[in-house]
Specification:
Elements: H1 4-7, E1 8-11, H2 15-20, E2 25-30, H3 36-47, E3 51-59, E4 63-66, E5 69-72, E6 76-83, E7 90-93, E8 99-102
Antiparallel strand pairs: 1-2, 2-6, 3-6, 4-5, 7-8
Length: 117
């Protein structure tokens, strides 16, 4: 069991990721060993949003050198998370045919996403 804070490291902010925010897609750098399910649960708990889809990309560290010394940068993982921008209440049928509604108060955007001006 991992802590939520260990799964998501930081937001990944580029021009392309800022444009995708309008579609409800947010990009994060996550732990290299995190699964899509762990990423989904972490984003839902941290930001109180409903996650529809998680796409992940693994990156190998580049080879770098400084003078005569050579080495590799660390491997890392990027996750693109699509959130529900129009959350609706969930309805289901209870025993006896009665319909029940779960109406959670969910956000439609991640306000804490580090957009600087």
């Amino acid at each position: 069991m991992r802590f939520i804070e260990d799964v998501i490291k930081r937001p990944f902010i580029t021009e392309k990721s800022n444009e995708a925010i309008a579609d409800g897609k947010y990009t994060f750098i996550v732990d290299k060993n995190a699964t899509k399910t762990e990423i989904k649960q972490a984003v839902e708990k941290l930001f109180q949003v409903r996650v529809l889809k998680v796409n992940t990309l693994n990156f190998k560290g580049k080879q770098k050198r400084m003078g005569v010394h050579q080495g590799y940068r660390a491997d890392w993982k990027k996750a693109v998370v699509k959130i529900d921008t129009d959350p609706r209440p969930v309805t289901y049928t209870e025993k006896g045919g009665k319909e029940a509604v779960i109406n959670k108060k969910l956000k439609t955007a991640i306000d804490e996403f580090g957009v600087t001006q």
